């Protein structure tokens, strides 16, 4: 890809130094993951989202789901905290500024949109986050649909937070107004141009993932066909958000998330085979991926 640099584990390893003994969970960040709806209410899938953030190293992960679904999800959350979000009684969130203020208070990073569904209420929630939240905001899945409805260039340019976008080609086409063939013709340039116009960090998913802030363009080639399964995108969002709990919201951090997730997927494929892989298999191998990258650090 023109002007793009493919990152290596050795280049990313300095982002994962050994941890000091005199630290606590607050040093590694409180994060929130906002998503879920009745149609996409798989409790284990939502639990994978929060577990992937914790495996990436954040201190505390809070999973916010519609209140109607909270009881079903709770038994699957062994280490995360659960926040029942106001809903209509049918498993779909409703906008509540007081709730969002409380949820995002003290959070270094928030992810929104995973398994969320498309609704006017969710558009209002995203608009509030863009306008009032000051940390790192990752937008994925139906959150990207909501962003496209708000007018992405204007909404992102005026955002109070640092925004990270994680679209696949179809979602990116909706955001940019380009066709998928136009995007595929020069993935790095179209992603870079969009980030330059909006100020967001863009991660464009693909066999070789592109990450750019409008200036630097990095690519990650880790992963495998077995990751083409429901919930894999949620795992990626969780990993990146977990890293944003304690690392700067820049292209290297986002590239590290893509690298770790892809490498964990490769390890999962070796373990269970590509055909039978589940997103939870990738989560189960995240710790191994983290250790592999850490080993690439130069000795002191």
Note down, in words, how this protein is organized.
This protein is of the alpha/beta class. It has a single domain (20-294), classed as UDP-N-acetylmuramoyl-L-alanine:D-glutamate ligase (3-Layer(aba) Sandwich). Helices cover 45% and strands 14% of the residues. 53% of the residues are buried. It is built from 14 helices and 10 strands.
| The top level CATH class name | Alpha Beta
CATH architecture level-2 label: 3-Layer(aba) Sandwich
Beta-strand residue fraction = 5-15%
Total of domains: 1
Specify Rg, calculated over alpha carbons: 18 Å
With strands numbered from the N-terminus, the spatial order across the biggest sheet is 1-10-9-8-7-6-5-2-3-4
Anisotropy-based shape: globular
Percent of residues in helices comes to 40-55%
Uncertain parts = none
Element string (H = helix, E = strand): EHEHEHEHEHEHHEHHHEEEHHHH
Give the number of DSSP strands. Answer: 10
Count of DSSP H/I helices: 14
For the residues shown, what is the average pLDDT? 96
Q: Major sheet, described briefly?
A: 10 strands, mixed
Outline:
By secondary structure, this protein is of the alpha/beta class.
Features:
single chain; 300 residues; alpha/beta; UDP-N-acetylmuramoyl-L-alanine:D-glutamate ligase; 10-stranded mixed β-sheet; 14 helices; 45% helix; globular
Topology:
Elements: E1 5-6, H1 9-12, E2 30-34, H2 43-55, E3 60-66, H3 67-73, E4 81-85, H4 97-104, E5 109-112, H5 120-132, E6 136-139, H6 142-150, H7 152-157, E7 162-165, H8 169-176, H9 180-185, H10 187-198, E8 201-204, E9 209-212, E10 217-220, H11 232-244, H12 251-272, H13 279-284, H14 286-294
Parallel strand pairs: 1-10, 2-3, 2-5, 3-4, 5-6, 6-7, 7-8
Antiparallel strand pairs: 8-9, 9-10
Helix pairs in contact: 2-11, 5-6, 6-8, 11-12, 12-14
